[in-house]
Amino acid sequence: MQNILEPFILSFIPLFVAFDAIGNVPIFVSLVENIKGERRHKIIKDAVTTAVSMAVIFMIAGKYILRVLGITISDFQIAGGAFLFIIAVRLLFPGAEKKISAAGGDRDIGVFPLGTPLITGPAVLTTTLMMVDRYSIGPTLISIGVNMLIVWFSLVKADTIMKVVGPSGTRAFSKVMYILLGAIGVMMMRHGIEAMLLH
Q1: pTM of the model
Q2: Residues 131, 136, 139, 142: what is their CA dihedral angle, to the nearest 10 degrees?
Q3: H/E element, 155
Q4: Rounded CA gap, 71 and 64, in Å?
Q5: Residue whose C-alpha is closest to residue 126's, from 90, 82, 92, 93
Q6: How far is CA 90 from CA 24, 87, 123, 172, 182, in A?
Q7: Given CA atoms 28, 31, 33, 35 in this order, what sign does their dihedral have?
Q8: SS3 readout for 70-102
Q9: Mapping DSSP to helix (H, G, I), strand (E, B) and coil, where does residue 12 land?
């Protein structure tokens, strides 16, 4: 039983860290501060639909894109791991949190910036491709689905989460997620280097 569940658990955790559902809550609240009711639910639906679509499309087509470009999985692991590490380091410094502007009004904020790059950004796309290579499409797809349910729930209950946890709590949670993201980046680079040396 443990062996059957292991790929699902091991693919879920890095994606959970990359999606950073709780860390996105304060930004979401600030973007929809004056929007209530059906309009807010529409924004959440658009955000989740966009995020899922981007993750799944990249999960399916990512390898083919790399193959066309002549990039090996080892290359992508090293570059992707370095990229995740850099993102994590930048986000850990004060004043470097994800700052998203909604200059275009609230008409399309469910798609941009919420769906992408806030929910499904470079970190999620990179992690998704790594999980597909390591654990196959099935466990990765299920992990994306479960993570998106968590994201959806966190957005629907965003006001409640902010009241219970508060801005300081969500920031602290995000910092822990960024440290884990950096560690995952290092792990990806290590696996890429090991695979390259073995070949």
Answers
A1: 0.82
A2: 80
A3: helix 137-156
A4: 10
A5: 82
A6: 16, 5, 13, 15, 10
A7: negative
A8: CCCHHHHHHHHHHHHHHHHHHHHCCCCCCCCCC
A9: helix
pLDDT in tens, 42-65: 999 999 999 999 999 999 998 888
Decide if 56 contacts 15 (C-beta within 8 A).
Answer: no
Q: What are phi and psi of 107, to 5 degrees?
A: -60, -45
**Amino acid at position 81, single letter:** G
Amino acid occupying residue 45: K
Q: Which helix (H) or strand (E) holds 154?
A: helix 137-156
Residue-wise pLDDT for 27-37, tens only, equals 898 888 888 89
Tokens at residue 76, please? 């992508």
Name the DSSP class of 24. T
53 and 126 Cβ atoms separated by less than 8 Å: no
Q: Domain 2-198 classified CATH 1.20.1250?
A: yes
